[in-house]
Write a structure and sequence with these properties.
Blueprint (H helix, E strand, L loop, with lengths): L2 H25 L12 E11 L2 E12 L3 E2 L1 E12 L5 E16 L4 H4 L3 E12 L4 H10 L4 E5 L2 E4 L3 E6 L3 E4 L4 E2 L2 E12 L1
Antiparallel strand pairs: 1-2, 1-12, 2-4, 3-5, 4-5, 5-6, 6-8, 6-9, 7-8, 10-12, 11-12
């Protein structure tokens, strides 16, 4: 088996495992693993292409409030594979959200639900050497971010997370939105 075949098989196994974990967590009811104050808990994973880059991600978010709020937190791991060269970038991002809202977004026509939008906050990027590449990827995906310092991005305005603000499991594999083509996209949303 070639290196590329093993790598693709590995990605498929990781995404499949995460998808099953999301379904399992959703089937046992709302789990408050993060804390007692959050209203929303989301888990998600996906793979696809954007602007000549292959990418993958998985993560979770929590939001406090019903349809808006001033507290949110996300931990998202993503990898970017630059097509045409051997550069691969991995980003670990922590979103410290200071304003969020639920409003019509990119997924609304498909889900019938508003999307979570992040209106302000900061994103910590690790490793710091990936700050600019992660900012470019997030900008290409529709986020209004700028580099504040190595390892720190500022969220400057409404940025559609493309995560539905309604409880349920969403399997949106094969979806293309604004230049982003998802091979696999699984989202689990729980609300207290």
């Amino acid at each position: 088996m070639s290196w590329k075949s093993r790598k693709v098989l590995g990605m498929v196994l990781v995404v499949s495992t995460l998808s099953w974990l999301l379904v399992l967590v959703g089937s046992v009811g709302l789990v408050s693993a993060y804390g007692a104050g959050e209203t929303w808990q989301l888990g998600f994973a996906g793979t696809g292409t954007l602007s000549g880059m292959g990418f993958g991600f998985w993560g979770w978010c929590t939001f406090t409030g019903q349809t808006s709020g001033s507290v949110g937190d996300c931990q998202i791991s993503q990898y970017l594979h630059m097509m045409g060269n051997s550069q691969n970038i991995q980003c670990q991002t922590h979103f410290d959200i200071t304003s969020w809202s639920a409003q019509p977004g990119a997924l609304t026509p498909l889900t019938g639900a508003p999307d979570f939008f992040v209106n302000s906050g900061t994103i910590t990027v690790n490793p710091t050497s990936a700050t600019q590449a992660c900012a470019s990827f997030l900008s290409a995906a529709g986020f209004d971010v700028s580099v504040a310092a190595p390892g720190t991005l500022t969220i400057n305005g409404p940025s559609d997370m493309a995560l539905p603000a309604a409880p349920g499991h969403y399997s949106l594999s094969g979806l293309t939105l604004g230049g982003v083509s998802y091979t696999e996209l699984q989202i689990q949303v729980s609300q207290k």
